Amino acid sequence: MPAQPAPQQSRPGGPAAPPVPARPAEKPVRVENLGSGSFVSGDESAAEFVSRVVQVVSWADRTRHGQGGSGEPPPPEPERPKGKQGGLIDDLARNTRSMTFDLLAAGNRVWGRKEQERYEKAYAEWTVAYREWERRNDAGTRQPNPLVLLVGEPHTGQRRLWRSVRDGLGAAEVGFEDFATVGAAEVLGDDSAGDALRGYVSQRTDPAMILVEDVDALFDKDSAGTQRALRDYAHDQSSCRLLVLAGTERVVERLRTEAPDLLSAVLQYRMPRFTQPAHAAALLDVVAAERSFVLPPDVRDRLAQLANLSAGARGVEALLDAAGREAVASGPSADGRIHLALHHLAPLVAAAEQRGGRPIEELLAELDGMIGLDSVKQRVRALVAEAQIDARRREAGLPIATRSRHLVLTGNPGTAKTTVARLVGKIYQALGTLPKGHVVEVARPDLVGEYVGETSKKTRAVCERASGGVLFIDEAYSLALDKDDDYGREAVTELLLQMENHRDDLIVFAAGYPKEMDAFLETNPGLRSRFATRIEFPDYTADELAGIYRVLAQSQGYELADDLLAELPEAMRRIPRGRGFANGRSARGVLESTIGKQSARLAAQPDTPASALSTLVAADLPGVGESGVAVTDDAGPRRGLDDLLAELDGMIGLDAVKERVRALVAGARMDARRRKAGLPVGASSRHLVFTGNPGTAKTTVARLMGRLYRELGLLSSGHLVEVARPDLVGEYLGQTAPKTREVCERALGGVLFIDEAYNLVQSYGSGGADYGDEAVAELLVQMENHRDDLIVIAAGYPADMDRFLDANAGLRSRFGGTVEFADYTDEQLAAIFTAMTAQRGYRLAPELTAALPAVMAGLDRGSGFANGRSARGLLEQAIAAQALRLAGPDVDLESVDDAELTLLTPADLPSHG
Question: Who's near 22: CB < 8 A, 6+ residues apart?
């Protein structure tokens, strides 16, 4: 007797959602006796399926052989009376003239007449019934045999189940003259697939029972012709042949979409999947019992794991036979039976490892050896732990929680998403979660067709190629960029269907930018439930990019000189982090430029020693503007820290602001130094509040701080996004949070500058304050989610900003400090006026220069005063007055000296009085 079947492996699929039907509750693997031997069933009982086929075929057979269209026999004809009419009693009555015999003869005649009357009445009724039976049994009620479709991967028990159907029909006295099994490749010829199938069937002796294996090949060559041939067989009421087809899920899906009427005439059975350890273990028990092998549970389970690398039932049987040969070679046992032990599996284990089955410890060590990606490594280890615990619970016979193993991988280009996907595939293979662990990388063009009906086929074919491993869809959001993109939606729908059909042997990784992937998951209700887990891949730091550069250089046989190693981090910091930034690929670009410069340098030195050919020095690193290091990014040209601080010092006034900014820069540099020394670094908020009146250079200083923090490595881009209340607050309920989130995502890597931030908590009529509060709440969420690559600066009047910070309990704790921007003095405004004049290409007359402080003192410092902007307004008035003075109606402009065109005099200033 075979051992009890192993518990079924939990599927790696998520909770079901439309449009894909939900998966039923997990069932144990079922092993059934089909008369001819044991059989590992799929989800449906194989014995019940065989019984159903026998019942339907038997009924159809009766309708074709004179037993009524409904399977009923004809009504029985009544028997004629067999009573004693005449004979001996009549002769005695005539010859003896006995009263007794006369009475007996008279009674006999009366009985005979009554029997004859009853017979005639019964015969008349039978004639009516027989005619009615004949009407029901005309040619139109004869039933054709059904088509039988065994759905599954090749060699998963189709022939064994076919033989069980054959034996069941024989027991039911449904006879066949010819039995044949044939592969679709043998059927196909130069004709169409439909004609080739008809030709083969016609050569068999009718009635024939035929198993056609790998029927996918017929559909792949000529789907329409194959469907026509099968439709003819499904309606053939005269022949008694029985056609059994063996194909994969692709056949079912093709019939469902192209010939649903034909699919309704098919009896389907889904075969077991022996890539699942539980089904493989059950089959090993069955085959071991048939071969009289002694198979301990630990040996069986190890063989089941190895069976993940084999194809179907034949692969499982081949592994068991190979282990049996090892056992026989080690010597006979005491009882004469073949006893299998773990050491008999050593050659099989070695062969599996050569095919790519690496130990889990080695794979995790490779993961740990990757540069950076600490959060990714932690998430992958959590997934591994879940799979390992599932395996232990399965071995203990405990229930296993159903969970989705499909993943969303978000991050910018070059963050090793594909590399990690390949590694995770191998890890899942080593854990027994996936049978192959290979990765199939695709993008939108590999899934979406160019005409109606092509998309589903392409997507289905891709999923079939990835079956047993990982399907990696790069830029998956491109499948749903446009709501009118019917082809993209068709690909998503087909993808969900294939994820359900291959829930036990296919894992899908969808990769792309975070924001776009969020939108992608919302396009179909089935996506978010299938992709329950997200792994975020952060951008590499400058030091990590330097590490990638070193690894790439060493892999290409180059050595790095000490001076290059010293300058390498700074070279990585010069890589712009704008739209074109590609992380590891950008580091590779710098290396390629370095090698190019080395080649040019050595080409000019013919006598260079051979050792120099493989050495890269600091002079080979590309400089600013050279290939590999762009001149600008979103924050403008890359400049050194000293240059930026010199620009700060060159600003007019703002002494307190300069001191505060230098203190912030010094603190950031000290944190970096402590971190490098391995010392603890306290957490601090870099978000700031700028208070001051308009025109005090708050925006200019904020832009400069973004560039300073970029050079310090605290921000990846350092660009400035300047917004106000209308950019954050929506006009109707539900619009505000998405607007605020989009603004924060635009500012990622740089500085978000919110001018007049207090307006977010001001009341603007009915509901206005509520929308502002929603913006503040979403802003706090985004500040927390992106605390490592976003700085928010909120600006406004001092008193108003105090009210702003008190409006939400989270605001004051998020903003780490306040920088106060004082109003400019009269002398500082005069200096600003002078600087602006030079920038515009004008000169000041000495008298005007002397008079400027007094002019600035005369400016109205009321509610309309705007500091530097007021100075700019005064300059624009002076330029307009100069133009009127030199080009007025009474002036000959051509006679004016060129030097006068750039000179502003006291007469050009507006009078205040």
Answer: 15, 16
